[in-house]
Amino acid sequence: MTYCVAMRVDEGLVFLADTRTNAGVDHVSTFRKMTVFEQPGERVLVLLTAGNLALTQSVAQILAEPTEPDHPTLWNVPNMFEAACLVGKAVREVHKMHAEALHDFSIEFNCSFLLGGQIQGQGVRLFQIYAAGNFIEASTMNPYFQIGEAKYGKPILDRVLTPDMPLDEAAKCALISMDSTLRSNVSVGLPLDLLVYEKDSLRVTKFALIDHDNEYFDMIHTSWGARLRQVFAEIPDPQWTPVSALPPGRSPMRSDPPLAPGHGPYKPVHEPALAQTLAQSQGGQPEPD
Amino acid sequence: MTYCVAMRVDEGLVFLADTRTNAGVDHVSTFRKMTVFEQPGERVLVLLTAGNLALTQSVAQILAEPTEPDHPTLWNVPNMFEAACLVGKAVREVHKMHAEALHDFSIEFNCSFLLGGQIQGQGVRLFQIYAAGNFIEASTMNPYFQIGEAKYGKPILDRVLTPDMPLDEAAKCALISMDSTLRSNVSVGLPLDLLVYEKDSLRVTKFALIDHDNEYFDMIHTSWGARLRQVFAEIPDPQWTPVSALPPGRSPMRSDPPLAPGHGPYKPVHEPALAQTLAQSQGGQPEPD
User: Fold this and answer.
1) Integer angstrom CA distances of residue A79 from A142, A189, A257, A284
2) Cβ distance A224 to A217 under 8 Å?
3) Which ipTM value was assigned to this complex?
4) Residue B280's pLDDT band (boundaries 50, 70, 90)?
């Protein structure tokens, strides 16, 4: 499996990719899923890939060194939209080469791509390209894309990421999202490729290969979990109140559990039942603290 | 889609299920996925279901009112292990009835179950039963099971849930896990069935149907998100230091980004590059605060 996330915020782009691949749990390897096309002062394009490694490596290769030498590449394509089209075309070319043979082995044509960057004189853009070669672009309404094992790391993105977030804060958000994914899925693993692209810099100024010895990621890993547990402890538990203790006129919001058929009607308990109110306020708002 | 989570802690069991079903986004309905077998003083068994609703309803029906009247049911099965076996048998019976016809319509035989509870004189147990009818049991090493849309809500469980957690705190944990799922997947929806089973009570004392008007869940929804953003803000951002600013002898942990082939070797930038060190400490530990 793989987890890659890319973000487009006002100040630039953040790219983060793990490096674990597996062909079954007894065949785990390390491959980089980030490919950088940097022409300092002219362009920085970053490609992240997920899916079948043989397919994604073929696509990356075609985008850098096409079989026909006069074909466009990500090194010379004139704008980001054309760059996304080119990735789509490369995926279709690889599909033509391999899909049928893979199908004979019941292997799915499974690959997806994130492409972001900037070309001199143009804006910063970020795209997600599907296995069919079609693609979508990130916007202020949806400032990030994920590919691979996306779900564990999505809640934190949905809760905190906004387009006006400073770049390094967005990088922190990506790393926390990755940390949640690493915690819950062993098929995603260190080291990580982190690239933070500062808008209009047209060069790679901030890049780190993050491994077990990276103190910042280790701090994130430790303190995010600890803080989460602390916040969790501070939120009050639900309360359950006996019906008799409710103020008069206060409906206990009681509802019966969904009982199975086959055993006659619900038999009430001898003692007065608890009002199953789950801390509905009894006259006032519950205190979050 | 569906999200159900069940937990076995020292003090008892927690069951939480959403109620949204969909057959495509233009066909969304509300069905309860919890079925309670309560014989006060003798047994409380709770079944949670996910997957194809026609299948899971058939299974629940067979477990309550079998077609052969002398067959065992969850109302009379003598112990929890037999109860889990019975769910497995019911799934296989439904498979025999429907799988072939579903296959003709390219519909997968997709269903899964959580079954937990207690029968008088015995311990509290929790099982997950698969579509094939086989099953596993929760343990202190793995005190919870999820079915349906499990991934968004898994990180918080992995980080905070322990078997010695008090019951109501575990219920809070389940609700936060559900809140993350609701936030990231619209196919999971309110109202929620929450049942908290207190060990040895042998009756349902704590049950709530949680809808938009539930103040406690609303508080969780609001304050968890707000606190998460606050904790996020308190964790320091990564730092990037110019190589020249590093103390002598300190390796900058620099690594080059994974450049695409096809354009000659990496061309260094004119100005002295940043050491892409990502807040590696420069002699001391980084401060988490």
Assistant:
1) 21, 33, 60, 59
2) no
3) 0.82
4) very low
